[in-house]
Amino acid sequence: MKKHVALFAGLGGFLVAAKRNGIDTIFATDLEEGCTKTIETSFPGTSCVSEDITKLHFENHFDLETSVDLLSAGFPCQSFSAAGNNLGFDDPRGKLFFEIPRLINSLVSPPKVVLLENVAHLKAFDGGSRLNRIMQEMRMLGYWLSSAQSLVLDSNKISGSPQRRERLYMIAYHSDYFKKNFFNFESFYPMPAKNVWSIVSRDTEQDGSLYLDKDNKYFQMLDQAITKGGIDSLYQIRRVGVRKCPPNICPTLTANMGGGGHNVPFLRDNFGIRKLSIAECLRLQGYVDGEIVFPKDLSNGRKYTMIGNAIHAGTVEKVVRHIEFN
Fold first, then answer.
1. What is the residue-averaged pLDDT of the chain?
2. Regions of the chain with pLDDT less than 50
3. Quick one: 152 and 202 in the same domain?
4. Total domains present in the chain
5. What Cα–Cα distance (Å) separates residue 221 from each residue in 164, 229, 235, 239, 242?
6. What contacts 267, CB < 8 A, 6 or more positions away?
7. What are 274-291's pLDDT values in tens digits?
């Protein structure tokens, strides 16, 4: 069976995608303990640690002679996002990218394929200068990687999710195993989006904590907007009011969901006005019920944050499916 190592593993989306494609994850790591505990409960056969990646050494966790087919890394995106300070590699979090080459160099044989993921703005910024830096680093390791294998994918178009979620995927093939990079994004085909109401239920009463009290100021704002805009759309509370989402569209779920209810999309169901449930958010992120099992002691706020930070499992599954390992 092919072997996978996941750096910056997050909620476990890379592990889900690998498992769906018959690939065994032998090791995963993330600094956030909530993520590693979730991976441990969801993938009990996988060695997983919560450790500062600058102090991480593979030899402490598995044999350096192990043949790794796929190494994935959703390295921190805050310093590359248009919404942040946008300091790139000058930000301590941006510098963490360079831990990936360090760890690859520690292996006796390099991973056959490396899959990197980050925000779309990384490719767009300054004519692609930051992406060029990443490509140069990977080429120095012996990998084939160009802009043709670095593409922004939208989960709404690629995997048929009602959620719009654009992320940059970079797929590098090592020259020890391949004469060139065979990965071809052109072989991808768009999928029609599922009906959002097949994922979000309006007929089943949810936990009471999801519903807004009628005296809540957000309830009053949403009630007016939904009465005017109709019940067949999701709604978001913004700084300047309520935004109605386009039909059959869920906006990009973000880590800010864990900081307050107004960051989570709302709907009116048959029982009141509520925010999306954790299970619904997971489904909108491309996860099948039961694939992610949270530890019992993890707060709901933390779960929402982790889901908002996660990759879209359906999209990365499709990426991994198109990788040639032989």
1. 94
2. none
3. no
4. 2
5. 24, 12, 11, 12, 7
6. 200, 202, 231, 234, 235, 273, 274, 276
7. 999 999 999 999 999 999
Torsions phi, psi for 4 (to 5 deg):
-130, 140
Alpha-carbon torsion, ordered 93, 97, 103, 105, to 10 deg: -150
Residue 148 CB coordination number (10 Å): 12
DSSP state letters, 205-268: ---GGGBPPTTSHHHHHHHHHHHHH-SSS-EEEETTEEEEPPTT-BPPP-GGGGG-GGGS-EEE
Residue 326 in domain? no
CA distance linking residue 29 with residue 76, whole number of Å: 13
208, 172 contact by CB (below 8 A): no
Longest distance between any two alpha carbons in the chain, whole Å: 65
Task: Tell me if 249 sits within 8 A of 164, measured CB to CB.
Answer: yes
For residue 64, the enclosing domain spans 3-188+311-321
Cβ neighbours around 209 below 10 Å, total: 10
With contact defined as beta carbons under 8 Å apart, do 251 and 279 qualify?
Answer: no
Rg (CA), the chain: 20
Write the CATH number for 132.
3.40.50.150
pTM score of the predicted model: 0.94
Tokens of 66: 């192990």
* Six-digit token string for 156: 């709404």
Residues that are catalytic: 77
Which helix (H) or strand (E) element contains residue 272? strand 272-275
